[in-house]
Structures are given as structure tokens and as C-alpha cells.
Amino acid sequence: MQCKNHNLDTTYSCAMCKTELCKECKPISFQGKVYCAACCEIAENRLYSMEIKKESFSSKYVFNRLAFSAILLACLISFSGYYFLIKPKDNIVIPPDDKEVLVFYLNLAYDKGKNSDTYKRQMNNILRLDMSYKSLITFLHTGEQYLEEKNYKEALVNFEKIKNMLSDWDLIYVFTSECYSNLGENDKAIDELKQAIELNINNTKAYMFLGDIYEKQDKIEDAILQYTKAFYIDNKNSSLPLKLAELYLRKNSITKAFEYRNQASKLGANTQNIDSLIQEGNK
């Protein structure tokens, strides 16, 4: 296995964060265990916050034994959650290889839903990839919380930070578009969705959101086109033919509406409302 930072064979593993280290990483040895510089830096910061006086590193980067024991104790007390206490950073530089992996993990997580075991596993996978990516997850969860509270400005601030760090993730543009749309900036929302589709031509949500915006603008033909694309990709989603039936009714295309109504019914959708609308249209 090679070290990420120096592309050299690893000879150590940090006892705290399990990061693989090579000699160039200058690992710090204490009581038979090896620690990386990042964990020692966190330990230093905790020591200052506890107002414990620390003796400086020796020329070989070895802490005073008593001070280092106090640091380790402080870290171990809250080891399972110490990254949650660090203020998230929006200036993280993500290596190109990691970006591809992050997009894969995130799309897999959201494909199964936030309450699924898959979602939790993928979030853990992101942290295993690099604990600094905790900032990305924090901004994501904070943005979603603001979105649920309909605080679209603050949600947008958090989503934009993610977009700056991980511009290759198509779904983040769907999140920002929802914010822009609810803030009355439909042109920006449309641009965001087009960017999402450019990154992932199979992004069903982007087509659906685009269709919703066009419908609100009374651009029914454009809305139908977007929902048709979405249904072509996700032909097991009963809500899509149901929506297409509704849109065709709005342009008085009863035959087409009935055709999509039947497709929705075959997929198990409740067609009671659309049936009533079709009957009214036939009068």
C-alpha cells in the first residue's frame, strides 16, 4: 500500500485515525504507538482549549510524556465524535481521484434514500476516505435542514460551498436549483438543472424539477418533454406517467392523457383523480 501524500510504500499506521504513513510523513512515536501529524495537531489544539500548559516538541517531535498523556486522554474521551466538534471548512481541496469516488458514494447514498442503511454506509465510506470530508457532509446536512425549514437563502449558502468543493456532483445542482426556484429566480434554477443533466444525462430528478418549473411558467410542451425524458429513464416510477397524463389534459389531449393514465395504472398508481379529470374533459 502506498501513502497518499508521498506515493511511497507505507511502513506505519496511525494508532488514532488509522491513516497509512510512510517515513516522509514524519510519524510521531509514543509508548510503542505511532501517530500522524494531523492527530497530534488536533491533540495540541485540545490541550490549549483545556488550558493545560504543554511543553514544546523536542528536535525529534516527541512530546513531554506527562503532557502527551493528558492530550491522549482528552482525545480518547471524545474520540468517536471529535471531528464533529471541528468547525467545517469550505476551502478543502479534493484530489481528482477522490472526487470521482465521492460522487459515486453520494449518488449511491441518495439513490436509496436518507433513511436507508445504504445512505449511512456511504457516509461512513466518505469519512474513511478522508476525515476532512466531514466538512462536506456537515454542509450537506445543514443545507438540507434549512431546505426543510424553507430557509432557502441559508440552504443555498451551504449547498454552494459543496458545489465549490465538488463541482462534479450532479445532484448538488438539483439542490441549488430548488433553492433558486423557491427564491423566485427561475432562470438560475433552470441553468442549475441543465448543468446537472450535462454532468449526468440520467439524472431523473433534474428532468422532473425542470418539468415542474416549465409547468409553473405555463410552458406545457416543454414540461411534457422533460417528464417524458424522466419516464424514459425511470419507467418503473408510476408518478411520472400520472404527471404526463395530467399535463396532456392541460393541453386537451385526451387520448394521450388516457394512454399515460393506463401506464400509471399498470405500475400500481392510484388513478382516481386523473380519471375524474379525464371524464370532465370528455364532457
Question: What does this protein structure show overall?
Answer:
- This protein has two domains: 12-84, no CATH class; 96-282, Serine Threonine Protein Phosphatase 5, Tetratricopeptide repeat (Alpha Horseshoe).
- Helices cover 62% and strands 4% of the residues.
- It has 13 helices and four strands.
- The protein has helices at 37-49, 65-77, 96-112, 117-129, 134-148, 152-165, 170-182, 186-199, 204-216, 220-233, 239-250, 254-266, 272-282, and strands at residues 12-13, 20-21, 28-30, 33-35.
- The strands form two sheets. Strands 1-2 form a two-stranded antiparallel sheet. Strands 3-4 form a two-stranded antiparallel sheet.
- α3 runs antiparallel to α4, α10 (220-233) packs antiparallel against α11 and α11 packs antiparallel against α12 (254-266).
Short description:
With 283 residues, the chain is mainly alpha-helical. It has helices at residues 37-49, 65-77, 96-112, 117-129, 134-148, 152-165, 170-182, 186-199, 204-216, 220-233, 239-250, 254-266, 272-282; strands spanning 12-13, 20-21, 28-30, 33-35. It is built from 13 helices and four strands.
Give the second-level CATH assignment, the architecture of the largest domain.
Answer: Alpha Horseshoe
Overall geometric form: elongated
Helical amount = 55-70%
**Into how many domains do the coordinates divide?**
2
CATH superfamily of the largest domain: Tetratricopeptide repeat domain
Parts with pLDDT < 50 across at least 5 consecutive residues: 46-63, 76-86
- Could you give the order of strands across the largest sheet? 1-2
Decide which structural class fits the backbone: mainly alpha
Would you report the number of β strands?
A: 4
- Helix segment count? 13
Largest sheet: 2 strands, antiparallel
What would the CATH topology of the largest domain be? Serine Threonine Protein Phosphatase 5, Tetratricopeptide repeat
